[in-house]
Amino acid sequence: MASGPDSVTIRRPDDWHLHLRDGEMMRAVLPYSARQFARAIVMPNLVPPVATVAAAAAYRERIVAAVPPGTDFTPLMTCYLGDATRPDEVELGWREGVFAAGKLYPAHATTNSAEGASDVRNIYPVLERMQRLGMPLLIHGEVTDPEVDIFDREAVFIERVLTPLLDDFPELKVVLEHVTTKDAVDFIRSGRQPLGATITAHHLVINRNAIFAGGIRPHMYCLPIAKREHHRLALREAATSGDQRFFLGTDSAPHARSAKEMDCGCAGIFTAPCAMEIYAQVFDEESRLDRLEAFASLNGPRFYGLPPNEGEIVLERRAWSPPSEVAAGDDSVLAFAAGETLPWALRSDPS
Ligand code: DOR
Ligand code: ZN
Fold it and tell me: Looking at 38-86, which runs of residues are DSSP E strands?
């Protein structure tokens, strides 16, 4: 058992990959992110996707209006890149400070990605412009070829899509999102161009067995799907290594219970109610609490060229149970670690 310090104080962290949804769901889940994170990169996979400057500005306003009073939280918006995306629209949004990044979903890779790029070459003119502007490209790194085993889709993406893409755009700032494999960790470390990767809390604590523990567990299903144990261990090593290229992105992705618990349930794990607590637990277990601040609060801003946050949060070693179910309209969302007792808590939260 680890027996490190009983509390850790870090600069306020940011979430570099978050799904906030919209409407009632957004209003229900947003406070859980805002209580811990000062900023978040907000994913654009709404229906319809957030693909124009006007849509992103309006979405940002709805989010800002829903931030609990007295909480300081800044949403950073992303542009959904599809076959029809115009480079001028992306540039306008970047120059106006609306778009912080562009998001590439291979078409049909995951939730609401049908309008993503059907071939990455279809967005080459957009990528050329982004490279010139210094605008980051965020990538859902999975191939969609049904012939490829679901557990191999990230590794195959790196080989078939990402490697040639980086060859074609050697200066493009790229974040490989929610990495789940040792292959991805090794690739990021291969030291090419401005390349970063986000790591979720859940991929640090579950492997693929969790999806089938005693029966099928729809709330453990997300994309990229959790992999074998040796991949999880590689992610933990990368996150806690102090390497600046790895930073925090929860990929907290709420879906109503009714959309998860069905014959074809949605992908997504809702970790916002306990994300920092889980990251703290992992860093403690690895005896690397001293590196939590770099991963959660420094490496991301550095990659994006933004200043780190001024405020602080305190995480303390104290048994704590996260809220298990969050009401959202007529439905509810089940949170990760529902019903569990976690060893780390955020100072502001009661036990
Ligand atoms: O599990 C996931 N859920 N992976 C994604 O890439 C999308 C997300 C969602 O929007 O629900
Ligand atoms: Zn996501």
Answer: 39-42, 74-81
